[in-house]
Amino acid sequence: DLYRKVFVFRKDPSDAYVVLRAKLEQPLQNFTVCLRSYTDLTRPHSLFSYATKAQDNEILVFKPKPSEYRVYVGGKFVTFRIPEGRRDWEHVCASWESATGITEFWLNGKPWPRKGLQRGYIVGAEAAILLGQEQDAFGGGFDVYNSFSGELADVYLWDMGLSPDKMRAAYQSLRLPPAVLAWKSLSYEVKGDVVVKPRLRE
């Protein structure tokens, strides 16, 4: 249970990462991924990387620069432009549904204009899920200049789209529906220089 704790990725650039183990029975036709990050990086960095043997960017939440997030599904991406941050915690949720290709992006509890991506695609279930690195091969192929440095917390993955109420609940750390990856019952393995510490502030 990592409640009120964070992963601290101490080095920049870094070769460290955290492997997450999800209980996924079948391929994903819908998903929502949420997480909280705190960093002073201005270079590109990966926040959440879900790779299959067929596709290294099966699901990827990536920040190429301070004013932009990218959400990848099946190797294709859409871009969400955001105001340049105040160097504070940023909470992001990205959800996608195969039937319509609709991709939602929420930043700090507020939705951005929806975009279309990979309608009809199915996300594979046999996945390597990593925090802190962007996979260019299944479980590896890292470029340290896409690595994350800073603090990560409140990581969740659902095999469904969350309602607006639940998106806001995730931002406020309220009660959430059962997830395939949940911060409060996370199965993980640290590889390299990552430390679990209490969160310093809300």
Automatic annotation (TrEMBL):
Question: Which cysteines share a disulfide bond?
Answer: C34-C93
Cofactor binding annotation: Binds 2 calcium ions per subunit.
What are the GO MF terms of this UniProt record? complement component C1q complex binding; metal ion binding
Q: Does the keyword Isomerase apply?
A: no
Keyword Calcium appears in the UniProt entry: yes
Task: List the GO terms this entry assigns under cellular component, sorted alphabetically.
Answer: extracellular space
Fetch the CDD domains from UniProt.
PTX
Indicate where this protein resides in the cell.
Secreted
Matching entries from PROSITE patterns are given as: PTX_1 (PS00289), PTX_2 (PS51828)
In terms of superkingdom, the source organism counts as: Eukaryota
GO BP: acute-phase response; innate immune response
Domain (Pentraxin (PTX)): residue spans on this chain: 3-202
As cofactor, the record names:
Ca(2+)
Question: InterPro entries this protein is in?
Answer: ConA-like_dom_sf, Pentaxin_CS, Pentraxin_domain, PTX_dom
| Principal subcellular localisation of the protein | secreted
Keywords from the named record:
Acute phase, Calcium, Disulfide bond, Metal-binding, Secreted, Signal
Q: Family per UniProt?
A: Belongs to the pentraxin family.
Relate the assembly described in the record.
Answer: Homopentamer. Pentaxin (or pentraxin) have a discoid arrangement of 5 non-covalently bound subunits.
Protein name per its UniProtKB record:
Pentraxin family member
Q: What is the native source organism of this protein?
A: Thalassarche chlororhynchos (Atlantic yellow-nosed albatross)
According to the entry, what is the taxonomic lineage of the organism?
Eukaryota, Metazoa, Chordata, Craniata, Vertebrata
